[in-house]
Amino acid sequence: MKFVETIIKRPSLIIVLFAILTIGGLFSYRMLSYELLPEFSTPVITITTVYPGAAPSEVETEISRKIEDAVSGLDNLDDVKANSFENASVVVVQFKAGTDIDLALQDAQREIDKMVSDLPDDAEQPSLSKISPSDQPIMQLLATSTLPNEVFYQQVEDKYLPVLQQIKGVADITMVGGDKREIRINVNDDKLNYYGLSLLQVSQAINQANLDFPTGKVKSTTENMTLRLAGKFASMDDIRKLVIATPANGSPIRVGDVANVTDGITEPTSISRFNGQNGIGLFIKKQSDANAVEISKLVQEKLAVVEKENAKDKVNFAIAYDSSVFTLASVEAVTHDLILAVGLVALVMLLFLHSLRNAFIVMVSVPASLISAFLFMYVMGYSLNLMTLLALSLVIGILVDDSIVVLENIQRHLEMGKDRWRATLDGVSEIGFAAVAITLVIVVVFVPITFVDAVIADLLRQFSLTVAFATLVSLLVSFTLTPWLTSNLAKLEHLNPKNPFQAFLLWFEKGLTSLTAGYHSSLAWVLSHKLAFTGILGAIFVFTGWVMSLGIIGSEFVAQGDQGKFLLTVKLDKSVSLQQNNLTSRAIENYLRKKPEVQTIFANVGGASTGVNSTGQGSTNRTELTVQLADAAERPGQKPTEQYMMDVRKELEDRFPAIEFGSSVIGIVNSGTAPIEIFLSGNDVNQNLAAAQELANRISRTPGANDVNVSVESGNPEVRVEIDREKMAKLGLNIQTVGGTLQNAFAGNDDSKFRDNGEDYDIRVMLDAFDRKNPDDVKSINFFSPSANRSVRLAEFANVSLSNGPSLLERKNRRSSVTVTANTLGTGSGTLTAVIQADLAKNPLPSGVTVSWGGDAKNQSEGFGSLGIAMLAGLMLVYFIMVLLYDSFVYPFVVLFSIPVAVIGALLALALSSSNIGIFAMLGMLMLIGLVVKNAILIVDFANQQKADGVPFRQAILHAGEERLRPILMTTIAMVIGMIPIATASGAGAEWKNSLAWVLIGGLTSSMVLTIYLVPMMYYIVDRIQEKWTNFRSKSKTTEVIEEVAVS
């Protein structure tokens, strides 16, 4: 090769090139940020609309259906799901994979703007937002102080929150819990009745009296002055003394005559607590393109300053959760695996190459490729995350592959007596095309990944491109640095048996020689007993199929990942108040805190969930406890988080039998939905609900199912008011007046504000708590009747009764729907899905109910389908590369026989390691296509060269197998050994790495053992067929010539 000869004679070019790559790579490494995962988005938007005081049925009719109709014509729409809660509508719009979500959001906003005038006047403006995994809080804080609760709340909201929100990359901070100051006007219903007033009159009087008016200007000949009417309340007494009405023959009736005016706090709707201490919870979310580790660092710096400045008030911010801790632990774990892999591969090189000199020549490709990869990652905008570092860890054995093949061939030429310069040129020229093919088949299998449209396509894309680039650099090294170093440093090593280490190498060489001789004999036997070997191979395939049929290998979309954290949900009876819930939740917390394995507990009592798909709806009877455990090594028996969680849950269920508990492990990627999500749709809501409850009961009896829930629950207690319109009209009242009064009475009216020291506080007018405790209080609500000129009670023109109604109404693709969800326990989500699907096929639900799948089932179907297509495309590209290499359409098929035998080892490795088939195991299968064909290429390429030199094809294939065994063993063992640290890792994020590494180890091992027999056998068969075909064609032509001569 002229190129290699030029490099050897003039190495300055390559030295400068790799100097630039090294300097650029090291500089880039310093610039790369740390992230747990690459940024990836889901093609989903949510449309949230608040409709105060509306029941779910009203929300569905007036809000959800109209929004459904508006967005149903959007391009690339996958499905639309509408959830109608009390007071709010949440419509989730999912688009097809690969959709530009920013453009889709703009289109949806335009459609909503067109129809917003059709919504009720008292409904708030619909809010549109994208859903992204980055919507999960990256930090959870609890703020505490010795200041009065309402004062501290105001300080957090007005002083500390803006400081944190100014940090670059912070998207949103949600406050949960705490006591917010509020001016409370608690109206006594009996006094209203005594004075003949209504609650609406009180609210209107306060709102109309608490106003500032700019009323114009006072102009004189010398100056202009603004005229402003200062009508705002200046004190509590101003409110108390405000006149509501003045009877014709009596004293003015003031607010203080009918209400108790206090400077108080809002009625709590949620309580936050960290390790038993109440406070104000702060949930920090980052912008989609921001770095969580950097934000965490800046937040902690700001908090330290705030704490120092407010030390006298003992202001403290406890960090309940910080995602950067797990991120850095994951990065550290993968980096440790990478370093260990490099060390192990170096030992393998030393074992096979006999000297530090030769091992150094090969190992140069590792730092050269890795450092260059950092430059590539920086240019591509990647970060140091679990996927890119995993790619660099797995690629260690691959990086030395080309250099091993080149150096081993150069060594073979040195043994022929050639000098270093000639041996280098001849060795590289002889193996050059094979080395290029080996690298290209590894690279091209990743090309289709760049076109995959799936939920985690961005994760796979960064992994694949990082592997491909590093591998291409290793090819460049093998044709530049390796030949140059070899021409200057390589020499034949003569081992000294008196040296202990060299004596060990001699022993290893003797074993390798014996192995080679045994392989030669066994290969000769295989070539002579092809049917027998085919039978052995068939038996291995049957055994693998039998193992698969046992169900040992489960399936899942993505392994959860063990962060040592789980979510415990506490659900009490629907009638339970927040205070009762708080007492019960504290008792549960106290029980958990006594366990030495529990490090922290963050309690969110009554507040809305903070997950990705949170609807912002809290409930007084529900609590979320986020439990952080100590490291697995510190737990009894080193229990995994899932097992420990279930043991604790069982204890709690025994200790608190009246409480409904739920639990789920908080993994690396939380989609916001349960792994099992089944939508039951139909026109009959009651039929949907009955079918959902039946299905939920069946799933709950299925092993591996946990926390089976039905989204729409009946039996939600409500007080129903049915108006007699005729009576109402006779009293001179209307629906707006009645509804407004009821809303003021039980939700309060906070339209008016009280200004104090430059801050505005709500003035809330509502009935006193004593007058709104039970349904009879609703009947007693007073209204002023204009026609009767007196106070009337609600019971005089309405029927008030207790009933049950759903707290949620669902629709999917414009049909009524109910969702059944379940978590998994000890089994893969794909495995559980298959069991449920089999049960539904055997025992179908009633006609009229349509079943569709979401959650992991949908993601797995799309992800596996995309990767399956990518595998097929990768296989075709590998075939085309080999067609170019061999200038033949036949020999590539011989090489491809190495792939099926790799699948055997991959599946058996998954079974032995108790791993599931998921996206990362499938990615390992894709990698195997490129990795395992290299052994076959080495054998076929050498056999072709032997045949070209006139060696009979049987002898050529025997010689090829014997000569190529050593580089096959070296490269495969190097890759396998390099992946062992990743396969056996147990640190942060290990669950994602393990299955991928086990697939590669198993596939490479089985392929190494079986390919060296199967490929020569197939090569032999193909050559025999070609020989017979050639002879047949020759005879046919000879016969034709004879016949032509005879005729002539």
TrEMBL record:
Top-rank taxon: Bacteria
Statement: the UniProt record of this protein carries the keyword Transmembrane: yes
A single MF term (Gene Ontology): xenobiotic transmembrane transporter activity
Record keywords, A-Z: Membrane, Transmembrane, Transmembrane helix
One Pfam family in the UniProt entry: ACR_tran
Keyword Transmembrane set for record: yes
Gene3D superfamilies: Multidrug efflux transporter AcrB pore domain, Multidrug efflux transporter AcrB pore domain like, Multidrug efflux transporter AcrB TolC docking domain, DN and DC subdomains, Multidrug efflux transporter AcrB transmembrane domain
Transmembrane segment boundaries: 12-32, 333-353, 360-380, 431-451, 463-485, 531-553, 864-886, 893-913, 919-944, 965-984, 996-1022
GO cellular component: plasma membrane
Record protein name field: AcrB/AcrD/AcrF family protein
